[in-house]
Specification:
single chain, mainly alpha
């Protein structure tokens, strides 16, 4: 759970600063598998928002972010 928190909050901070630092694809895949195990309905909405939809062909990072309630296309400028 700690790795998920660090990776995703790192993405949050980078995006808020206008930086794009994508997660390595294999890391995102592994974290997505773990998130599906550990982020349960009881975790929502206290720690994570409801999952968002992304296209099936989207990269693993987008699936991870969306699963945790983040919009992978979010920028601080819109």
């Amino acid at each position: 759970m700690g790795a998920i928190e660090i990776a995703v909050h790192g993405w949050d901070v980078a995006m808020a600063c206008g930086e794009r630092h994508p997660l390595p694809p294999l890391l995102a895949e592994e974290l997505l598998d773990l998130a599906r195990l550990f982020v349960t309905a009881q975790e929502r909405p206290a720690r994570f928002a409801l999952p968002l939809a992304v296209p099936p062909h989207a990269p693993a990072q987008d699936h991870l972010l969306a699963y945790l309630g983040r919009d992978p296309t979010w920028t601080p400028f819109h």
